[in-house]
Each structure stands twice: as C-alpha cells, then as structure tokens.
Amino acid sequence: MSISWVTVPTPLPSGPLRLAVTEQGVAAVSYHGDAIGGVPGRVGIPECVDESRAGLVRARLAEYFEGRRTELGLPIDWRFTTGPHRTVLQTLTAQAGYGQTLTYGELGARSGVFEDFTDGGWTAARTVGKMMGANPLCLLVPCHRVVASDGLGGFGGGPRGLEIKRWLLTLEGVLPPTLDWNGPG
Length: 185
Hints:
Blueprint: E1 4-8, E2 17-21, E3 26-30, H1 51-65, H2 83-95, E4 102-103, H3 104-111, H4 122-133, E5 146-147, H5 158-171
Parallel strand pairs: 4-5
Antiparallel strand pairs: 1-2, 2-3
C-alpha cells in the first residue's frame, strides 16, 4: 500500500501539518515535517496526487481550525500502532471528544491495558504519557486532550509543542483565550 504526503496550512504556532495518507486513511501526522511513526520525513515519499483524498483532508482540517468542525471524521490507517499502544490510542479517540480532557492516569485506567494500580496509577500515567509522545496520529487521535492531574502536562516538540497544545485546547474551549490569541480562522 502506497503512502503519500498531504501538506495542510494551519494557524498553529508550528505552521503547516504534514499527513501521511494511504488508500485506507491517514496513517501519520507531523506538526514539524519530521519523520513520524516509522514514516520517513520528506525523503522518498511524494505529495499526494489523489485530489479527492488530499482535498478531503485539507477541507476537514480547515473547518476544524476555523472552529466549524468538532469531529474530523477522517478515516484512520492504524498501521503504525500495535498492541497496548493502539489500545490506548483507540480508547482516547473513543472517550475524549472535542472540548474534553482526560488525565494520563484516567486514560490508562479506561484503556484496560494496565492491571496493577498499586502505585496509585503513577506508572500507568507515566507510560501513557510516553505513548502520547509516540502518537503517530496526533490531532486525529487527540493526544492534546490528555493532561496531567496537576496541570497541562507535556506535548512533543518541547516548548513549541506546549504552544500547540495550548492553542488546540483554547480552540476547543478547554482553556480561556489569551490576550495574544485571536481565535480560530
């Protein structure tokens, strides 16, 4: 099955998104254009020439960033996830809708992947945090909606990643707008 990239302009602090698409759906998303989920960055993978597929991805993301869509409704190709990681990501997709958040510990417990909570769920929460950092389908599988029990938590990409997480949670109404954020669109 062939993979191609769709580049989508965004208002995010990171700039455009790059999405790896296949005949089955979106297989990976990158905020920074880097290699993700086992898919090399720009090397050797062409831009998508299937305009119906690329157009759907661009249109749905544009509507989301404009605040007109709360569900992307794009098909997902789960090929770069397996086992417990896939289970946790699918649980997140099913249980954290637009404008909702879960803590890392809550997601671990709801996924059913972690049996031993004798440490109060700390190990599960930490493991879920690492899984979120390795999420090849960010935005479609909304790891930005997973927060720490005592605050925002982390997000891939260092300080720029936290800016993205704050921006997305503000767009979805979880966080109040700041004076330097003028909303979707």
